[in-house]
Amino acid sequence: MTDRLVLVINCGSSSLKFALLGEADRTPVLSGLAERLGTAEGVLNWKAGDIREQVLIADGTHRSAMAELLPLITRFAQQPLAAVGHRIVHGGEHFTGASVIDDEVIQAIKDSSTLAPLHNPAQLTGINEAMRVFEDIPHIAIFDTAFHQSMPPHAYRYALPEYLYTEHSVRRYGFHGTSHRYVSRQASLLMGMEPGHGAWLTAHLGNGCSTCAVLDGRSLDTSMGLTPLEGLVMGTRSGDVDPNLHSHLARNLGWDLERIDNMLNRESGLLGLSGLSNDMRTLVAARADGHAGASLAIDVFCYRLARSLAGLAVALPRLDGLIFTGGIGENSPLVRELTVRHLALFGLAIDPAANATPPGNPARQIQAEHSPAILVIPTDEERQIAEECLALLDFTATQSAEQEA
Ligand code: AMP
What we know:
globular, kinase, Nucleotidyltransferase, domain 5, binds adenosine monophosphate
């Protein structure tokens, strides 16, 4: 079998992250990040094996950054690309899986932009620019929301008037689907179960954080909702607050919606609670030095995380394991320890030696004897996107072969 290559693109409003992945090798052939786009200081850092380089993006546009990729791909790819996979944050209710990008898909992504005004327009720019540079190759969209389209109505509906759902699409969607899907599948492999099977609670803890209840490869409930603000305490996002907070701040402090929105998304979470940083590494170090704000921020983060996991447990018929992933989930023994302490009711307990982060941070089990499985699994969203692209190509190839037969 030839080792097919997929270029995975994740476009933000001021950034462009990419990875060139082969089917067989777990390490990307080439990967990189263009940052500070939209300014005169645009810069692209890339690496391929031991080679690392930096390229200035003089005009700071997504178009120029994308154009820089073409010679790099030509240099490092041994064969033509099989597909370009695009990470898209919000697919609304239109998408339950990977979709080959055509005019209809582009329109649907535009239609979902009101639900993700910061993300979808930037990702549409990425699609347009990539389609200009990489012509005649299938471009495939992978949606963060798609994995959660299997949630039942009792999990995705808010207790709001029905017309807000039917006419204005107000419902819970969930995000980080690519990561929750990837780690739950890896968990079944790690535990020697049939691939994709099992009843899992997953905690994706990065700058954004969410939990998910996954049964046999299907999301049954998740902590994020209409937007990625709902649910857990995050780096700078508040997570759940009383919905009346908005009117309280407007009436008593005279704040307008933009100010409230900004405070909840950019000034809250670990940063707001600690008064110090949104970065868990900084907070763990400051807590060890006796910083009260850092200590409180970590305690609230872990308690609210445990509460979310306990709540999501009701979606599952049993628990085969709890999975930690994301920058914090993979790298912070303290967060895992403090969180699991609140989950003793489920019989969950950690083995301290296994919990200590080993070099290379491999996927592993960290539970104490007699506890249900507790797993640390490094996430790999680019790998998951590449695999979904190839699976879609295989599926469409089989379909057209059947039609011809
Ligand atoms: P991500 O968005 O998945 O890259 O995760 C970013 C978060 O992971 C930041 O809050 C980092 O502080 C956190 N992180 C990375 N390494 C560590 C570590 N060794 N200990 C604690 N937190 C970490």
